[in-house]
Each structure stands twice: as structure tokens, then as C-alpha cells.
Amino acid sequence: MSTKGKVLVAMSGGIDSTVTALMLHNEGYEVIGITMKTWDYATSNASSKETGCCNIDSFNDARQAAVDNGFPHFILDIREEFGDFVIENFVEEYLAGRTPNPCVMCNTHIKWRALLKRANALDCQWIATGHYAEVRQHTNGRYVISKGLDETKDQSYVLWGLDQELLSRTIMPLGKYRKSEIRQMAFDMGYPELAKKSESYEICFVPDNDYRGFLKRRVNGLEERVDGGWFVDKTGKKLGKHKGYPFYTIGQRKGLEIALGKPAYVTNIDPVTNTVVLGEEDDLNRGEVEVIKINWVKYDGINDGMEAFTKIRYKDKGALSNMYNTENGLSIRFYEPVKGIAPGQSAVFYEGNDVIGGGIIQKSVF
Fold this sequence. Notes:
Blueprint: E1 6-10, H1 15-27, E2 30-37, H2 56-69, E3 73-77, H3 79-95, H4 102-121, E4 126-128, E5 133-137, E6 143-147, H5 164-167, E7 170-171, H6 179-188, H7 192-195, H8 211-218, H9 222-226, E8 230-232, E9 238-241, E10 265-270, E11 275-279, E12 285-296, E13 306-311, E14 319-325, E15 329-339, E16 346-351, E17 354-365
Parallel strand pairs: 1-2, 1-4, 2-3, 4-7, 8-11
Antiparallel strand pairs: 5-6, 8-9, 10-11, 12-15, 12-17, 13-14, 13-16, 14-15, 16-17
Helix pairs in contact: 1-2, 1-6, 3-4
């Protein structure tokens, strides 16, 4: 009988989730491994081979680690619920001229809920993942997500949507370690092939990293529907034809296929008129952003003017800002202009290393 309780560990077959499971097993938890199949690569009609977390090799790697260490392992098929929400949201956001973050949507609405449902069915007190972040209970009683020790791997940004029920049941043991230490652990635990395994940074259902191709395959007749739109400057002057507004993102510079004699950046997208606005790098500067669909983490709300570091993309270092409540969410006002704010992405607010909360960027203001 375990002294630390029963834990359901999400195992992708990669190094992080495998070390998580083995670490908790060695610490005395009663571990049950579960691998979630979120996407059937064969249905995407992409050109490259199946990669990432949803292939048979990954499933086998996860199962083998469980067998080696004497704990049970299950494969859970959540393709239907994942596809209905995450993929449809991904497509709809691009068609609306926004830039979605499917990992945030999956964590918030699908993956953790699926884990918790099965944890309850298996009488597990905890669920655990291999994310580089930490969860703890604050003195105010709320459960808080904090940045992982290894800032180059920190994943707190994509976890802002987890509510208090989910956080109260979650363990993230890797948050206290650097990636180099986890690689050494995998080697020491007898899994040298995991220690050398390359990582995938692609969206699981776009494993060739070609989201434009995915949209074309997913939406019948998309190219014909959006063909013939115009690149324009900030005054509305036409600069040349583009391939369709869903195939561009705010801040994009490469792949525009238009020569203007100087670097050009996508500064705005209008799906109604099928126009993509191009400008100079400074035209990407914004001083304020409106955020909706807020999930509070560290506190259950804020007073107007509260200071925070706000990250507007995953690899963003964050910028000092003040937060103000609005009718639909928050207005974030930056001390210094921030570049490349893309509607549809997440804005996550930090107090030190702690996530105060987060939401979806609705629009930015000069």
C-alpha cells in the first residue's frame, strides 16, 4: 500500500513524462500511467511521417517504462473530444483573422478534464504531468502555478487556463529541475535512449509544422474562398496580391512573397475585406491590450491598477504593465510599447514567478 497515495501520470512516451512517472514511483506513489491519443495522423494527409506524441512508437515507449517498473499503463482515445473542440477552435480562429494557441485550449478544456475523469474512475487522488512548472497552495488557500526553475523550458504560460479544481489535484515534479538534470535522471534510471531523444515543438495535429497546409486540407475550397486579397499599407494603399488572410499572422516578416525594397511586417489582418496590412517594425508597437475569458489563478480577482509582468506569447520575456478591470475582462496597459501582439493568443499575468491569471487577447491598442 502506497504511503503517498495513488497518482495518474500522463505519459507521452517522451523523456519528461517518463521521468515524472518513474520519479513518483520511486518516491512511493502508487503510479498508474496513461497515454492519451489525441490525433490520428493518417487523417491529416500530410506529407511527412508521423511524429510527436501520437504515434505507436511513443505509445510503446510509455508502456515499456510502465512494464519495466511494475505499474499499470492504459491508452486513452480522446480523438473525438479533442477534435471537436481544439481543432475546430484552431480552424475557426484562423478564419476569423486571429492566431490561436491550441496547446492552451487543449490543456484548459480537454487534457486535464480527461485526466481528472479517469483519475476519479481509478480512485486516484492525484494527476501528474511532465510540465516544467510548479503547483502549490498559497496562504490565501488558492492553488498557484509558478514558473519552472529552468526558464528556458518553463511551461507556466500554457497552463493559465487550469481552474482551482484541476490545480488542487495536480502534481508537476519537474518544475524544480533543469532539463539537463532530467536527461541525467533518465540515463541513471536506465533509459539512455530517452536521454538522447529529440524533442518535438510542433502542434500535435500539425506534425509537419505547416499550419497553412493543414487549413487547406481541413477547409474545403479555402484557397478559392480567400484567394485574391490585397496587401495594403496603413493608409489603405494596395501593395500587391496575397494568398489569403488566414495564411498570415501578426508580426510575420518571412514568407510574404512581396518586394517593397525594405523589410515589411504584418501589422493587421481584416478577414471581412481579406486584406493584410503591412508596415515597418515600429508599426507593431502597442501600448495596451484587451483580454477576455479570464481565468484567475493566484487571486480571485484584482484591484484596478495592479502591477504585473504580462507575457503575450510563449517565448515572450514579459513586460511590466498595469491591469484594469473591464466589463468583458481586463485592459492591460504596458509601461513601454510591446511588439507583435496577436489577437487569439494568450496574455498571462505574473507576480514574480507566480501566475496571477490569464486570458485570450481580443485586440491591441496603440
